[in-house]
């Protein structure tokens, strides 16, 4: 089945005749060279699907992904292979994507060897990638199960760096890690950004995680971008009620407990998204128009877009 059909099955679509669900719908998103764009929303909102489409792993059923201003679908096979190497994905569970029978040296060295990216000695090349990812190269003959979760994520990062990427799509890359390890890995991402001029799409369900590393933030709800702005704007002047609710959910040390849990109710099934504004069943500000008409993403300030009818009132 197609990726979208698999997505439908995961959300309870009929197994014999998969329903095509637009996990991502009417999204227009630009990641600018050198920036960190945080993509935030609850699990099941379509962030991973969008990340895979942007990374070129999953083709969109309609629409286009442009890489440096050119459509991915119009590149020659050779150009597309080159673009795919420049865009690398880092996943939540690196263990699942690390071959358990391959040593770290094999895991990190394989892709650059196949793609002829190594000039000189492969061992030295692998050592350099491991050092960049904060791993001791003397452990490179070991296997993935001999490492901790944080170290495995570093192996995944070393493997991605080994193909000399320009753009990293990180999908919940720290979500499975302890908080102290999360901070180390986030710092590593930021150091690598400086050293290697990387661009990031940083996908997380946790607005608090993206706060300190993003330049801009896009908020996703049921397959759509509902707000997009600089990180300062999102945190100081959130426009969309969903963004406001997500901000309320960030546990703040100074307040000890959450003052008010704004996000009531479950995320509706993407198989049957609510009519009108998809957030209306959970929105404390919903009014009549919200149940009938889907709000468009519009400018509300400089470099700040939001999709909410309240902006017309
Ligand atoms: Fe809430 Fe209406 Fe705005 Fe949707 S359009 S977020 S329901 S106020
Ligand atoms: Mg996901």
From TrEMBL:
GO-annotated cellular components: plasma membrane
Matching InterPro entries: AAA+_ATPase (IPR003593), ABC_transp_ATP-bind (IPR050319), ABC_transporter-like_ATP-bd (IPR003439), ABC_transporter-like_CS (IPR017871), Oligopep_ABC_C (IPR013563), P-loop_NTPase (IPR027417)
Entries under PROSITE patterns matching the protein: ABC_TRANSPORTER_1, ABC_TRANSPORTER_2
Keyword Magnesium: no
Any one Gene Ontology BP term: transmembrane transport
Record carries keyword Coiled coil: no
NCBIfam families per UniProt: oligo_HPY
Protein family: Belongs to the ABC transporter superfamily.
Name of the protein: Peptide/nickel transport system ATP-binding protein
Species of the source: Consotaella salsifontis
């Amino acid at each position: 089945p197609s990726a979208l059909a698999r997505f439908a099955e995961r959300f309870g679509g009929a197994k014999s005749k998969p329903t095509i669900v637009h996990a991502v719908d009417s999204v227009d998103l630009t990641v600018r060279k050198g920036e960190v764009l945080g993509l935030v929303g609850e699990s099941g909102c379509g962030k991973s699907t969008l990340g895979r489409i942007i990374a070129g792993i999953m083709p969109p059923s309609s629409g286009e992904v442009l890489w440096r201003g050119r459509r991915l679908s119009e590149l020659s096979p050779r150009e597309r292979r080159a673009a795919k190497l420049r865009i690398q994905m880092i996943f939540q569970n690196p263990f699942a994507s690390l071959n358990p029978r391959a040593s770290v040296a094999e895991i990190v060295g394989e892709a650059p060897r196949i793609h002829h990216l190594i000039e000189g000695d492969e061992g030295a090349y692998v050592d350099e990638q491991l050092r960049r990812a904060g791993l001791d190269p003397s452990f490179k003959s070991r296997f993935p199960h001999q490492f901790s979760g944080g170290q495995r994520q570093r192996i995944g990062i070393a493997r991605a760096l080994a193909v000399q990427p320009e753009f990293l799509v990180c999908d919940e890359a720290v979500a499975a890690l302890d908080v102290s390890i999360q901070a180390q890995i986030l710092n590593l991402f930021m150091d690598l950004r400086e050293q290697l001029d990387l661009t990031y799409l940083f996908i997380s369900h946790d607005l608090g995680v993206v706060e300190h590393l993003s330049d801009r933030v896009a908020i996703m709800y049921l397959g759509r971008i509902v707000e997009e702005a600089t990180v300062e704007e999102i945190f100081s002047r959130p426009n969309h009620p969903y963004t406001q609710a997500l901000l309320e959910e960030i546990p703040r040390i100074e307040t000890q407990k959450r003052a008010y849990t704004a996000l009531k109710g479950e995320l509706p099934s993407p198989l049957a998204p609510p009519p009108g504004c998809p957030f209306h069943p959970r929105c404390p500000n919903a009014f009549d128009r919200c149940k009938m008409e889907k709000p468009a993403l519009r400018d509300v300030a400089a470099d700040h877009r939001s999709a909410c009818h309240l902006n017309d009132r």
